[in-house]
Specification:
Strand order of the largest sheet: 1-2-7-4-5
Number of helices: 2
Order of helices and strands: HEEEEEEEH
Oligomer: single chain
Radius of gyration: 17 Å
Structural class: mainly beta
Shape: elongated
């Protein structure tokens, strides 16, 4: 569902997208930085069942030719349906099926950041500073 427009998902499925944005500094360092990860929070509006199909949960996306690795993906099911003030947080693996969700539960999905290309020390320091200020 990560490649489907949020408006479509909210119109056709019983969920609400609470957050959808990139994750600063999640791409690996390199002469060319790796792309940043994407964070999306889905709030479920009724009882249902979901499946998780993801990669880069256990190992980091590698860099190439001296580039640094990106960040790993992470999926957490926050059980607000059980306790609004102190919900249980359930870590999910990369491949899981038949996960029951209840109205109010939130799936926090952070995709992986990609690895960098070539040695990051070969980059122009001013460009690195600019990207840092822009949270890339």
């Amino acid at each position: 569902m990560k490649a489907i427009p949020n408006e479509f998902l909210e119109q056709y499925y019983p969920l609400h997208i609470e957050e959808s944005k990139t994750v600063a500094y999640s791409g690996g360092a390199g002469f060319n930085r790796g792309g940043n990860a994407h964070r999306i929070f889905w709030r479920f509006l009724e009882l249902g069942t979901i499946s998780i199909i993801d990669d880069r949960w256990l190992s980091k996306p590698w860099g190439i030719l001296g580039g640094e690795p990106g960040t790993r993906s992470k999926k957490t099911l926050v059980r607000y349906s059980e306790n609004q003030d102190d919900p249980r947080r359930e870590a999910l693996g990369s491949k899981q099926d038949h996960i029951t969700v209840v109205e109010g539960d939130v799936l926090e999905w952070v995709a992986w950041g990609s690895g960098g290309w070539r040695n990051p020390c070969q980059r122009d320091p001013e460009l690195v500073a600019l990207e840092f200020r822009c949270r890339l």
